[in-house]
Amino acid sequence: MAVSPLAPAAFPDLPQIGGVRFSSAAAGVRYKGRTDVMLAVIDPGSTVAGVFTRSATRSAPVLDCEAKLAAPASEGGYAFLVNSGNSNAFTGSAGETAVHGLTAATSAATGVPEANILTASTGVIGEPLPWERIRDALDGLNGSLAPDGIAGAARAIMTTDTFPKGASAEVQVGGKAVRIAGMAKGSGMIAPDMATMLVYIFTDAAYDRAALQALLRRLTDRTFNCITVDSDTSTSDSLLMAATGASGVDATGDDAFAEALEGVMLDLAHQVVRDGEGATKFVEIAVTGAEDDADARKVAMAIANSPLVKTAIAGEDPNWGRIVMAVGKSGAKADRDLLSIRLGETLVAEKGWVSPDYREEAGAAYMKQQELVIGVDLGLGQGSAKAWTCDLTHGYIEINADYRS
Amino acid sequence: MAVSPLAPAAFPDLPQIGGVRFSSAAAGVRYKGRTDVMLAVIDPGSTVAGVFTRSATRSAPVLDCEAKLAAPASEGGYAFLVNSGNSNAFTGSAGETAVHGLTAATSAATGVPEANILTASTGVIGEPLPWERIRDALDGLNGSLAPDGIAGAARAIMTTDTFPKGASAEVQVGGKAVRIAGMAKGSGMIAPDMATMLVYIFTDAAYDRAALQALLRRLTDRTFNCITVDSDTSTSDSLLMAATGASGVDATGDDAFAEALEGVMLDLAHQVVRDGEGATKFVEIAVTGAEDDADARKVAMAIANSPLVKTAIAGEDPNWGRIVMAVGKSGAKADRDLLSIRLGETLVAEKGWVSPDYREEAGAAYMKQQELVIGVDLGLGQGSAKAWTCDLTHGYIEINADYRS
């Protein structure tokens, strides 16, 4: 499949994170001739936190991770084991057998206690995971762990993704540098609900475990929970973050660190949208003037999820009437006569109608851009929110009417 | 545009309803060479009730209708005036000027008091309605009113519809026959919220006004509010019903009448789905075993709105994993291990996994049908609901990436 036209020029040069090593392998889970398993091993003394899908039909690995992170922390380091090609979701008791088989085998290979082995699986739903193939790859994975293996790991977790996704930051905490590096996969079934796609983030700062969990939840609401490709929510969405403390710096509660982490999360979230199935346009929806932030988010997501708005964008049609429609259906408080709509800098509609200075040619010219900003001001209060989405094209239909995912 | 493959063989032979006359005309609102305005005049002594979109950006005609129906009933009969080609939505004070201009002109032409003239407009949002063109057609419309004009009227209100939609019933009330006849338009921007597309229903029974309003609301929730084409809700959705009493029979509170009316409404709702933009499959989602009916409806609509389910149907892929996903994201209470899924009569998944007797070939053969039933039993309680939708195809993208609606 061709790489998304919205992809970054290249995978970024990610910093090594002290205390974390990566490897990847081709276990033949579903795909032939490409890597499909990644292993990350994290040194003892690290803290780990995670955020997961709220789907009522969560996958077996998600249920296992949630149980482990809810238990008191245990010693001995962590390992993340992730495969693509099969999500091990809706696979009944066989799904649990596969997870336990893999966590036991990973513990045997790496020496990390089984209570600290966190797995994820992504791909087709409802088919048995051929977990023995992954088990048989574990000794090789353990033997090839390397501090610079993150790029290969990011590639191994791709499914319909057309490019691997990475982002990083370096930030000063108490006068000393700490680093954050993350990777993500995702391009369809993207409307995370209080969670995200598969995302793994690492830092060499130390961070209190409960505080890290709270920080991740808060930042997820402002990053991964504000993107949508197709309004569908995965059974497997998982975000895990490990803070190794290898830098000797404790970043717990540090504002600059939180800001840098939010930047990394937002960058990864945007890359997921840029790899949206069939996407040719990257669209930011910026809502202001709502009664509160929750209403602003409702409006932003209603626009971002509207098939009629997304097909208009695909057709480069400045069809702001469909934006009005989406505002109206959002459930948020809105007053037709106070609403204003902008395409980029151009004021299109205000006071309940098209702006007197607006010219259709200006809107049509703007819509030809690859990166678009739709601005909506509700004129009611101080609430604001942003959401990010892509257009809805023939490519989405082609991918999903044929691909069994 | 080609007629939908899911269209009925022909427009039904609708009974004449005593006390109602129809006409249609080509006023050139937007389209050339086709009718685009319909007038229905209803005799004095009739009662009228209506249900409208809950969009926060409702059109000017919807706001006018709501105000008129909220006021005490007045004497002198009713008129419904409807145009296609322009929705007169988000047109500011010019929208109100257009509505008042049209209701005054319709009153002058027909002799019906202005307080009883109910209008609707459907088509492009945000462009001024050239209402003078409709005004200039009113004398001709009034002069050509006829009891058998309903088929022409149903055709005049079409936009992206590929066929006109009608349905009828005859039912015995107190040993005497009364008749119901209705028409509808709609094929995109279809996810009515406590309302519907443009729908007009007539009966020669008498019916108490407040009771008719309550009946319409209740039946709308079980018919038009259970269909979806694209999850988008129109600014103009309107359902109006007139009970003329010309039969001499009062049907207020009659169960057989309510059942017959529900049948007419469901028939029209299904026809809207059958004319869904780009549709090639008609799909019923039947949910049982939910904790309550509200949860069942959440699950049914989550499946019916899921782009991934709808593209799988377009691809004739028995991809029940995507149905599991949609159940999971619906927000309804669900237990993976109690859930069962059927494609038609075939049990596909149960007890948290694929059914041991299920063969992929059976599912694949079923998906080739044009009419599909997806059954989901949640195994929790007695709640049930049905929803109706169509598949998501290249046709939908073609229509909406190009057509300015």
From TrEMBL, chains A, B:
GO molecular function: L-glutamate N-acetyltransferase activity; L-glutamate N-acetyltransferase activity, acting on acetyl-L-ornithine as donor
Domain of life: Bacteria
Residues that hold substrate according to the record: 159, 185, 196, 277, 400, 405
Pathway(s) where this gene product acts: Amino-acid biosynthesis; L-arginine biosynthesis; L-ornithine and N-acetyl-L-glutamate from L-glutamate and N(2)-acetyl-L-ornithine (cyclic): step 1/1; Amino-acid biosynthesis; L-arginine biosynthesis; N(2)-acetyl-L-ornithine from L-glutamate: step 1/4
Swiss-Prot/TrEMBL catalytic activity: N(2)-acetyl-L-ornithine + L-glutamate = N-acetyl-L-glutamate + L-ornithine; L-glutamate + acetyl-CoA = N-acetyl-L-glutamate + CoA + H(+)
Pfam families assigned: ArgJ
Enzyme class: transferase
GO CC terms in record: cytoplasm
UniProt xrefs under InterPro entries: Arg_biosynth_ArgJ, ArgJ-like_dom_sf, ArgJ_beta_C
EC numbers: 2.3.1.35, 2.3.1.1
GO biological process, any: L-arginine biosynthetic process
Keyword tags: Acyltransferase, Amino-acid biosynthesis, Arginine biosynthesis, Autocatalytic cleavage, Cytoplasm, Multifunctional enzyme, Transferase
Residues of the site described as Cleavage: 195-196
Localization annotation: Cytoplasm
Catalytic residue positions: 196 (nucleophile)
Site (Involved in the stabilization of negative charge on the oxyanion by the formation of the oxyanion hole): 122-123
CDD domains from the UniProt entry: OAT (cd02152)
Protein family according to the UniProt entry: Belongs to the ArgJ family.
Subunit (UniProt): Heterotetramer of two alpha and two beta chains.
Protein's job: Catalyzes two activities which are involved in the cyclic version of arginine biosynthesis: the synthesis of N-acetylglutamate from glutamate and acetyl-CoA as the acetyl donor, and of ornithine by transacetylation between N(2)-acetylornithine and glutamate.
Protein name listed in UniProt: Arginine biosynthesis bifunctional protein ArgJ
Organism: Pseudoroseicyclus aestuarii
